[in-house]
Amino acid sequence: MPAKQYGLKSVIHRTLARRLLLGGIFIAAVFSTTTYLARFDDIGEAAIVHAINGVEQLRVRVRSIEETAGTALAKAIQQALVEEPDYRVVSRFGHFSYARFYTPDGQTLAQAATDSSADTAPFENLLQQSSLQFPALDHPWSESIRINDRPYIRLVLAVADQTGAVAVYAEGLYQLSDAAIAATRSAALRTAGFVLLIVLSTSLLLYPVILSLINRLSLFSERLLDANLDTIKVLGNAIAKRDSDTDAHNYRVTLYTIQLAEAVGLDAPSMRGLIKGAFLHDVGKIGIRDNILHKPGRLDAGEFGIMKTHVDKGLEIINRSGWLTDAVGVVGSHHEKYDGSGYPQQLRGEQIPIGARIFAITDVFDALTSRRPYKEAFSFAETMQILDEGRGTHFDPAVLDLFMDHARMLYERYGGREDEGLHAELNDFVHRYFAVDLDMLA
């Protein structure tokens, strides 16, 4: 079939540009997210330092309250928590909005808001629903959380007594400042912008090289496809002319088959295999002797047995090509019959590949409506009657019903034709279905 431009180059430019852009955006998103998380880690480290300093200040204040007023530890902590925060450490990253102290056995000693303007209900709810943490000394535990759609760091650290043993655990909810949040987002956006700029700049430098390589690959692919299709055409036409002095049958039956398959709803990969199989359905007849292939009369049982071997010979031929293996269904099963009386495997019903069930109808239809050296063409009405008589025996009833809906139109369009227009129409269908295969390269 003549070389055609399959449209692959027309999509290469936009496909390549789109994928490079999407790749740049993805990489930028990954790096900006990493920066965002790293920034939060930095703030978390600052919050830990802030908390340690705050707890140390608080411990000094608690000891002062205990010594001055003789107050128990729990009450001293509670009093220290609610005092004015003139002694507390201030950080540009944020501040602790809520604090809780509990013993190693999980009993709460004290808890209070350290931000007098804060609504304590969300903090209390969160802490009630959260499991207690018991980190080791010098190994504070932290996690990032959101409360009322605002980022916080929940922090727990162990506080030692004078002997070095854990006395209490200090837990705090660290609220990030607006400045810290803005700085974190700004850093992430800057990183994303820089990364995207770098990726796109690199892509622009590489674009001509990549495009040149893909153009060469696409040209090679188109030429390879054309060569494969030309091979099918040459081989199929050679067999057809050896059998009946004309290649028109191959073109007509393939056109019938494609349009019936479209009515059945076959997908593009199945259509490609069906087109190959339809054009090469009788390729095995290359191995049948002329005295049998061209015998003017009816074949006897022995001769018919030899004629039937053309199916196996055809399978042997196409199985030598990986590109033709999807044609096996039609080449190997186009003489099977719906009731199991066909050959070579006596398949029945849906055991027969759908492509072969489609082709069986169109092959008989074209054979009946075409003039051959040994017969005249049957009329459309006679042909349809013969097909209907084969319903459920030779032909799949459901597929036959679909064919009958389109048979008159197909007959009027292709019946008996042997002109070059058949070639052009088949090439259009080939372009439609095999271009899909090539476009996957884009």
Shape: elongated
Order of strands side by side in the largest beta sheet? 2-1-5-4-3
The average pLDDT is 82
Q: Helical amount among residues, as a percent range?
A: 55-70%
Number of helices: 14
> Which class of secondary structure composition applies to the elements?
alpha+beta
Beta percentage is 5-15%
Biggest sheet architecture: 5 strands, antiparallel
Query: Which ranges are low-confidence, i.e. pLDDT below 50, for 5 or more consecutive residues?
Result: 1-6, 438-442
Count all strands and give the number. Answer: 5
SSE run = HHEEHEEEHHHHHHHHHHH
The N- to C-terminal Cα distance equals 24 Å
Query: Taking Cα atoms only, what radius of gyration do you get, to the nearest Å?
Result: 41 Å
